[in-house]
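Below is a filled-in request sheet from our internal design queue. Each sheet records the structural input a requester submitted and the sequence that came back. We keep these sheets so that new team members can see what a complete request looks like end to end.

REQUESTER: design group, bay 2
PRIORITY: normal
MODE: inverse folding
CHAIN LENGTH: 238
BACKBONE (tokenized):
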């Protein structure tokens, strides 16, 4: 972890979102960040951890200095349906209230594609967004997992301008056709500006939507080469 953080700092990346403690204690990570002038703004945990271990999650988030707690996956073994959407709404409301009222933390759900399955005159994401209280439940947009099931990230940001607080910035390899599975090979993560997403339009909409934190995400085996390319692309983006 120290070497990884050193590599990221050399690229002038200071704002971190952790999706795991990587076998360390939160205080150990906080010390490594403090030593480098870096910080953690969001802590990602599992659905079950957020629901069943809020005290532990909140303690870790506060130790890290994070303001946000994020869940990135709704457990499921079939496509999104109304029953699962209603359960999600109830659970997210419970999670969000606990984190906000008891610990002063903000809860966000990171979309992963399958919640954009069509429902009525929109999608299940629309249904979840409309039936959750923004005081307790908001969102982190993963732009790849918004585009992958056929949605327009910029349009959705403008449709829900106050609900998205965080963003995963990534790009999808050209030629890849998406679906509602929420799954594709990590090798389909490519350097920003070389894939299918209309990043200028998305970033413009994100600024209008007041996104608070942007995280570059690259899970490919070529991330060490692609990350500098992505940063260079963002720096010249107008």
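RETURNED SEQUENCE:
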């Amino acid at each position: 972890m120290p070497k990884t953080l050193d590599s990221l700092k050399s690229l002038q990346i200071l704002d971190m979102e952790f999706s795991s403690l990587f076998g360390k204690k939160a205080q150990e990570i906080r010390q490594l960040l403090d030593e480098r002038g870096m910080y953690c703004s969001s802590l990602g945990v599992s659905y079950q951890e957020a629901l069943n271990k809020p005290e532990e999650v909140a303690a870790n988030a506060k130790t890290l200095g994070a303001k946000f707690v994020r869940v990135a996956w709704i457990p499921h073994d079939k496509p999104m349906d109304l029953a699962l959407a209603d359960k999600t709404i109830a659970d997210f409301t419970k999670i969000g209230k606990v984190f906000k009222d008891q610990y002063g933390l903000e809860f966000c759900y990171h979309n992963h594609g399958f919640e954009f399955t069509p429902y009525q005159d929109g999608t299940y994401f629309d249904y979840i967004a409309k039936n959750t209280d923004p005081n307790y439940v908001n969102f982190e947009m993963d732009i790849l997992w918004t585009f992958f099931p056929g949605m327009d990230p910029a349009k959705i940001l403008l449709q829900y301008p106050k609900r998205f607080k965080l963003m995963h910035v990534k790009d999808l390899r050209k030629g890849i056709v998406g679906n509602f599975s929420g799954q594709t090979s990590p090798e389909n993560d490519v350097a920003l500006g070389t894939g299918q997403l209309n990043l200028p339009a998305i970033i413009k909409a994100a600024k209008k939507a007041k996104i608070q934190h942007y995280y570059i995400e690259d899970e490919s085996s070529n991330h060490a080469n692609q990350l500098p390319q992505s940063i260079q692309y963002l720096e010249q983006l107008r």
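SHEET NOTES:
- The chain is about 45% helix and 20% strand.
- The longest strand covers residues 39-45.
FILED BY: M.R.
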